[in-house]
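ugh finaly. both done.
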Amino acid sequence: MPARQFRWGLVGLGRIADTEILPGIRGLDGHELSVVVSRDRAKADEFAASHGAGRGTTSYEEMLQSDDVDAVYIATPNALHAEQVVAAAAAGKHVLCDKPLATSVSDAKKAIDACEDAGVRLGLMFQTRRHEGMTEAVEAVRSGILGRVVMAQVEMSAGRNLPKGWRTDPSLAGLGTINNIGVHGFDLLRYLLGAEVVEASAMVDREEGFSVDTAAAVLLRFDNGTLAYVNANQAVPYARDDVVLYGTEGRVLGRNLSRPRRQGSLIVTTASGESEHAADTSGGYRATLAAFAESVEADEEPSPSGVDGLRSVELTTAIARAIETGAVVRMPGS
């Protein structure tokens, strides 16, 4: 809980801002929504009124100069993120950025450097880490009850909900469903395993008329030896949204827990038996907003951090190369 009122500004008023971020801020004690920014003044005013913001504006620069904004949430098209992070840092604002941090590794590094130089905190909205059940899954891995995790699998889909608007434009989105959905799976695996990817390969499908991927099958090798498969797609109507960790001594199954607003369960199976409890993924966004504010108040590195954002961009860059070449791509420094 913030020690004082924590004041937010938000730029980019798309669906997630409307359904998750703005309601999430309003639902947190000690948090205040000061300013919302859109290129459309009527939309800015409408969102401000409907979500209890102090005001709406069309000027990001005006918001950054506001004394009643402690932190900025960036929810604009992917290609704009890094530049807007840099601008916020220059204005002395902390930043929680929607994924991905950038559409290139160089831009992701610029964003991190700008925040470090300005002494502000940078976090990423990888909210899947805070879905119910994920803390217990991490504990199962760290405790050793699973033995060595040999294989991991993440299935995640938005249903048959093909990319729309700017998400269909590679110059704004970068990759398609990989940047929209898949990056959550990649970050979740890093978090659960406490390991880094050393190799990646991928195959994608693009529905007719699309310039970006609409379904992706990604294979990863981690530096602890774990092999992983991520199925990320927006192309099928009846997908599973499961997370599975297969160890030499046990298994963790997060049934229906990889996507927001799901009701599922966490099942841990070992030689001593099986335990299961219900889990709800509805609170991931709000929990990540709260945790970011707490890290700012405590002057601590957020989780997920800017570095987590950079690792994600490094990985999606490698995946893009794997798609283009058909090769298994090694990560830089591995």
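ok and the 2nd:
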Amino acid sequence: MPFKLKDGSWYFEAVQFVPGRKRDHKANALAMCPLCAAKYRYARDTMDAALIDGLLEIVVSAGEGAVEFPVLISGERTSLRFTGKHAIDLQAALRVAGEER
């Protein structure tokens, strides 16, 4: 999921789906372009609790290719796209990661 820079090198920003958890999990990381990462970090209207509750409510079937998850950013609805495996891993991580720090 990296993005190619003008000099030919690859780049992405790692953003936590839900920041400030007691435990760190690889599944909590999202790979985004720099612009989307900044929007997600600083202009996301969807609260952390709603992210957690919403993702845990999604039923992911075995072998499901992609899962889209709605998020409000600057008052506009957009979607995050996860692979089925990433969504399942993230659901498991959120269940064991505990409350905010």
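summary for the 2nd one i guess: The helical segments are 34-43, 48-57, 84-96.
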